[in-house]
């Protein structure tokens, strides 16, 4: 596989909360990741779109209905905004501490990383093992599972939707900072033994090196939209899902009252009891699935 020039954008991955395979016990099984949000007491029409961060231009451009929904909106609400001076690349490069990667990687894997980052402006020696794993996981899904086109310069599906919104002069709003997301990436694996970090990094590097497409069930599942939202099941990660959803809904509620919103966040934030679908319904909104296939 030819490694293209890369720039780092660390967004929380969905792998830990995606569920492969379906059951018949849930209340919402739809071939969609797009929902209309309405309120009988308001003329506003908003939309909720569940992203998979590894996807990009090709996927979103194929969704005519989702593009029309975005075009009809006044504001795009996403997890974060890439603000100059506060990008992941700048946050990492401004660190003083350097990681001894020999404690986490064998020489072959370290050489692989050096080659991968040879044209990147990000100093990978200042990344943590958790951050590196998030990046490599994303890289695997984009380059191996999705065979991302060289003409698609978006770093994520969320990033491409922002580009489309900017083209149409749609206002952008970030629910949290990249600093807080990077902190969360590391806090989520706080206390993880070094041997576990080593095993995870070795495994993901091996998948990339061998272009192991047999491990692409998650991206296949998302692209086919065979999604069980498991609205009656408890959230599986308080730190990554429950706490963030509970914080986000306060801002989302206020913006929904004022504007036609297009909310684009990781699909797992729509799922489970603590998800935004349930939370929006809990404060009086109708949340209607829109079939995309």
Characterization of the model:
With 293 residues, this protein is of the alpha/beta class. The chain contains 11 helices and 8 strands. The chain has helices spanning 57-61, 64-71, 88-93, 107-116, 129-145, 157-167, 178-187, 194-209, 217-224, 238-258, 276-282; strands at residues 29-30, 34-38, 45-51, 75-78, 171-174, 227-228, 261-266, 286-289. The strands form 2 sheets. It has a 6-stranded mixed β-sheet, sandwiched between helices. The radius of gyration is 19 Å and the shape is globular. The model is unreliable at 1-6 and 11-27 (pLDDT under 50).
In short:
With 293 residues, the chain is an alpha/beta fold. 41% of the residues lie in helices and 12% in strands. The longest helix is centred in the C-terminal third of the chain and has 21 residues, at 238-258.
Computed Rg: 19 Å
Residues in helices, as a percent range: 40-55%
> Structural class of the secondary structure composition?
alpha/beta
Distance between the termini: 31 Å
Which residues sit in consecutive blocks of at least 5 with pLDDT less than 50? 1-6, 11-27
User: So how many helices?
Assistant: 11
Mean pLDDT: 88
Task: Return the string of H and E elements.
Answer: EEEHHEHHHHEHHHEHEHE
| Biggest pleated-sheet summary | 6 strands, mixed
Which of globular, elongated, flat, extended, rod-shaped describes the shape? Answer: globular
What portion of residues belong to β-strands?
Answer: 5-15%
Number of strands: 8
Question: Which sequence of strands runs across the widest sheet?
Answer: 5-4-7-3-2-8
């Amino acid at each position: 596989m030819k490694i293209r020039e890369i720039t780092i954008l660390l967004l929380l991955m969905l792998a830990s909360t995606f569920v492969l395979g379906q059951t018949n016990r849930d209340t919402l099984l739809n071939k969609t990741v797009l929902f209309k949000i309405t309120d009988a007491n308001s003329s506003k029409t908003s939309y909720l779109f569940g992203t998979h961060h590894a996807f990009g231009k090709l996927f979103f451009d194929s969704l005519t209905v989702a593009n029309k929904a975005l075009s009809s909106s006044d504001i795009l609400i996403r997890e974060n905004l890439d603000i100059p001076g506060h990008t992941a690349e700048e946050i990492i490069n401004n660190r003083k501490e350097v990681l001894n990667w020999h404690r986490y990687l064998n020489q072959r894997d370290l050489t692989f990383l050096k080659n991968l980052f040879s044209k990147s402006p990000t100093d990978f020696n200042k990344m943590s093992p958790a951050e590196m794993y998030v990046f490599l996981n994303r890289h695997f899904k984009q380059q191996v599972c999705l065979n991302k086109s060289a003409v698609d310069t978006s770093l994520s599906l969320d990033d491409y939707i922002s580009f489309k919104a900017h083209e149409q002069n749609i206002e952008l709003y970030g629910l949290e900072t990249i600093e807080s997301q990077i902190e969360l990436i590391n806090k989520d694996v706080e206390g993880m033994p070094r041997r576990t970090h080593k095993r995870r990094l070795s495994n993901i590097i091996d998948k990339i090196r061998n272009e192991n497409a047999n491990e692409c069930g998650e991206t296949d599942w998302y692209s086919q939209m065979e999604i069980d939202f498991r609205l009656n099941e408890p959230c599986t990660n308080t730190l990554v899902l429950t706490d963030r959803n509970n914080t986000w809904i306060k801002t989302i509620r206020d913006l929904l009252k004022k504007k036609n919103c297009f909310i684009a966040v990781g699909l797992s934030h729509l799922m489970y009891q603590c998800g935004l679908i349930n939370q929006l319904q809990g404060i009086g909104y109708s949340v209607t699935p829109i079939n995309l296939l």
